[in-house]
Design a protein that fits this description.
The protein is of the alpha+beta class and 186 residues long. It has two domains: 35 residues, no CATH class; 137 residues, Nucleoside Triphosphate Pyrophosphohydrolase (Alpha-Beta Complex), CATH 3.90.79. It has a four-stranded mixed β-sheet with strand order 7-4-9-8, with helices on both faces. A three-stranded antiparallel β-sheet has the order 1-2-3, with no helix packed on it. It has a three-stranded antiparallel β-sheet with strand order 6-5-10. The longest helix has 14 residues. The chain is globular. 23% of the residues are buried. The mean pLDDT is 94. This is NUDIX hydrolase. InterPro entries: Nudix_hydrolase (IPR020476), NUDIX_hydrolase-like_dom_sf (IPR015797), NUDIX_hydrolase_CS (IPR020084), NUDIX_hydrolase_dom (IPR000086). Its cofactor is Mg(2+). Keywords: Hydrolase.
């Protein structure tokens, strides 16, 4: 079968840090690929992250609105955030949900992990499905440089927002698609 894991990796011949920031670094590399090519590549070395499709029992989806530098505007997306050093993805998912929205996961189910662009970054985002209760809310704890507005939106409206591009983040589209394809009617 063609789609089988392989242990073949490229051999990094040279690497230097071109930029170092608080969320990612840019590493310039010279690599010998498994098929023998010698290539120059820039790698955005990024901390791993989590994103959550958090829903109520009556199919209300928790959607965040937050400023995002990549589009220099507010974006709509599912709750998400970075995994702290030494933290498990499960613990990060619970923490990020509480910090950004004030809601506590009543249950948490891993969906899958996605990579936004393997051609330039090693970022991996662990996706989760969380059940939440609208009546059970605690105080939000934003990072010092973030402000997030959260609201419950009916699932059909979220699907429509993905279809027409109002929700376009890779992890949001992936989490919703995975849930609809493999979890909802399982």
């Amino acid at each position: 079968m063609f789609i089988q894991p392989t242990n073949e990796t490229g051999r990094i011949l040279a690497a230097r840090t071109a930029y170092s920031g608080h969320i990612f670094d840019v590493i310039q590399q010279t690599i010998e690929t498994p098929d023998g090519l010698r290539v120059e590549r820039d790698l955005i070395k990024h901390a791993p992250a989590v994103a959550l499709l958090a829903m109520t029992a009556d199919d209300q989806v928790l959607v965040n609105r937050e400023y995002r530098v990549g589009i220099n505007a507010e974006a709509y997306a599912l709750p998400a955030g970075l995994i702290d050093p030494g933290e498990t993805p499960d613990a990060a998912a619970k923490r990020e949900l509480e910090e950004e929205t004030g809601y506590v996961a009543q249950s948490l189910q891993p969906l899958c992990a996605v990579r936004s662009s393997e051609g330039m970054t090693d970022e991996v985002v662990h996706l989760y499905y969380a059940q939440v209760d609208q009546k059970k809310r605690i105080k939000q704890h934003f990072d010092r440089d973030e402000f997030v507005t959260s609201q419950f939106v009916p699932l059909p409206d979220v699907i429509a927002a993905v279809q027409d591009g109002r929700i376009a983040s890779a992890q949001s589209v992936s989490a919703l698609s995975y849930y609809l394809a493999f979890v909802r009617n399982a």
